[in-house]
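Researcher: Next entry: diacylglycerol O-acyltransferase (Zhongshania aquimaris).
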Amino acid sequence: MKQLGILDTAFINLEHPNTPQHVGGLGIYDPSTAPGGFVRFKGVIANFERRLLKHTIFRSRLLRVPGNVDRPYWVEDANFDVEFHIRHIALPQPGDWRQLCILVARLHARPLDMNRPLWEAYIIEGLDNIPGVPKGGFAIYTKMHHSLVDGAGGSSIMSVIHDLEPDPAAVPQGQQVVNVDVSPGAMYLTASSAVNNVKNSVKMLAGGVGVLRDLGKMAVGMAQKRIPIPSITSPKTRFNTPVGPYRVFEAAEFPLQDIKFLKDVANVKINDVVLCIVAGGLRHYLKHHNELPDESLSVSIPLDMRTRRGMTDENNQVGSVFVELHTNVADPLERLKGVYASSQEAKVFGENSPLVDVLKLAGVLSPALTKPLVNSYSNNKWTRHLPLGISSVVSNVAGPTFPLYSAGAQMVRYYGLGLLTPGVGLFHLIFSSNGIMTMSILGDRDAMPDPAFYRECIEKSFTELLSAAKSSQSEKKQPAVAKKAVKSAASSVTKTSSRVQGASAASTTKKTATKRSAKSSLTTPVKKPIVKKAKSAAAAKPASSKARNEDEGNVVPIKLSN
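Model: Predicted structure:
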């Protein structure tokens, strides 16, 4: 038995029917790599069950303290039934991408059963009309409560439920011994909660002193302009309206080498490239709906606190900062430069501010006090009155660089799904693996009734940025001979013009020259070659990136492949 940490408890306390606090993933698999070239449903269940035996968190359920006066506990469920958590379904005909997106959105909108281990998995067949899906291919959609895992830990969970080879060594048959927890009685839990509350009060007092000290240091740093002031008053959009219980899902794909090319050309980070693509997508989408603000929009970015404060025994170690997207800048490369500058400022702020841990406030106090506040916050739609304007959450997760297998079938694509909060109805989750970057879009159905169009906006944003970057590179790498030719032509034009001007002055002052000879010396031998050379120099000048961007269409989506 293990008590939940403060941040893990925060996600339990934030659970609401309109904003369930689970994250998910959709993997697509090629069964041709499995022994025999096909996969049976019972084989997938056996693979899950074999691996879940090694990881108690998947067999653990919540045990609440009487009266919710203390944080709950994880206890291993003596009645754990793997077949309850793994379901087998199929798409109806024709089995296309749109149907898969609708199904995943509906599954992701449903809250988990909080009385059982907090995860579910769905094996989905019938993907017959999705271009690029291998013959007989299937999908596995999984969802897990955020109290079990955060974004950075999600990749490790993937390795837990997958194999590293299509035909792993056979597991010896025989009885499996599973240890389970004996749930303690109400008297024990009540007594433990009394002791814990005393300890928590001391920790809160010490933590409060530390937070005040850190806030003081941050204020001094801001006054001295060493720490940038975050933008928390960005304009609100349709995604800042109260979030309902229904979801939409879509996804775009990009070659990872193109993303790295953009990173190298602009000398920025991959995260900056991702944010710039999102910025362009939001710009196109809101402009189409005549809702694009004149000022820049902002997004929230989760931070992995493991690299900042070391490992702890909590499942979640995540903070967040705000970054301006510069959606008011039309030129994609200029926008990328602005995003890079804003993300660097956010990084400095995150390293010096205790506010990155603001989510912990939902888990510090007992659930008996926090849960009513959360329900009131959501039910009364208080988000309408808050000044904070965060249009989306953008999370970037690096996946494995090696193949993964489920029951022998190789995973060929993976799309991550985040969660929505009462005031932010759009979530972008980026996942990179085996040369492909996927961008999954989870939205509130009322705020985004046209998710396929938004995906097109994201793809168009990527195309514009890539085109502008390639144009910029071609200008820098223009051959030296061509540059010399242009320079020589320009020099020739300058010298010839000087000669023309000199001849003109001489003809004006020389009274004995005839009108015919003056005309002949000025126009016939000189003017015609100048016109030709001027046109040649103009033709060597490449078209502006802005003109090219206006002519670009949508990027062709990358299809699934074996």
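Model: Note for the record: The first helix runs from residue 6 to 13.
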